[in-house]
Write a structure and sequence with these properties.
About 30% of the residues lie in helices and about 20% in strands. By secondary structure, the chain is of the alpha+beta class. It is globular and about 60 Å long.
Length: about 160
């Protein structure tokens, strides 16, 4: 008996961007410019857009960062990121499932290891290994890790082949 082959996962896009480390020095303190720029570059590299993402592992160490990431990455209009949660759009069966196993807070936010775990979570989703939190038919996933309250943001897009 042979084990079933797991889907091959490729890194289709990967980008980083930076902004001022001091929030008060940013052009707009309520917009993650580095998140927007890194997502835009990763989308272009992967030849996808927000509507193509099946699961998003965002950096939810602080609740506001979730809403700001959803907005910066094009999943919600400015000031409307929180509505996705209120309307049930970010759960495993929603339009853009995020942090399907509880996110950084559920893992104790192990600084330094969080970005790697986000990628592992996306790989497991794309391979169909997430049991109760599995997003049906997930083929494209995105992970976005934030450093320095938005000063440095990395975005990775992975695809199942």
């Amino acid at each position: 008996m042979s084990l079933p082959e797991k889907p091959r996962i490729t890194i289709a896009g990967s980008a980083s961007a930076t902004d001022s480390i001091a929030v008060h020095s940013r052009k707009d303190p309520l917009f993650l410019t580095a998140g927007y720029l890194s997502a835009k570059k990763a989308y272009e590299m992967a030849n996808v857009g927000p509507a193509d993402i099946d699961v998003f592992e965002l950096h939810d160490a602080f609740s506001i960062m979730s809403a700001l990431s959803l907005e910066a990455c094009g999943f919600a209009e400015r000031g409307q990121g929180v509505r996705l949660g209120l309307e049930g759009e970010i759960g495993p069966g929603g339009r853009v499932p995020v942090c399907t196993r509880g996110g950084l807070k559920a893992r104790g936010h192990p600084v330094g290891a969080t970005g790697m775990y986000q990628v592992v979570e996306i790989v497991q989703q794309l391979r169909g290994e997430c049991d109760r939190t599995q997003v049906d038919g997930a083929k494209i996933g995105m992970a976005q890790n934030i450093g320095g309250s938005g000063a440095t943001i990395l975005t990775h897009i992975l695809k199942a082949n």
